Amino acid sequence: MHIDPFIVLGSAVVGFLVGMTGAGGGALMTPMLILLFGIRPSTAISSDLVAAVLMRPFGAAVHLRNGTVNLALVGWMVLGSVPMAFLGAYLLHLMGHSPSAEKSIQTALGAALLLGATAMILRYALDRRSGKVGKAVVHHLTIRPVPSVIIGMVGGIIVGITSVGSGSLMIVFLLFVYPMLGAKQLVGTDLTQAVPLTLAAALGALAFGHVELPVTTSLVIGSVPAVVIGSFLSSGVPDRYIRPVITFVILASGLKYVGVSTTALGWILCAVLLAAACVWLVQTRPWQTRDGQGDGTPEADTEPAIAHGEGYD
Question: Per-domain residue ranges for the chain?
Answer without folding.
Answer: 5-260, 265-302
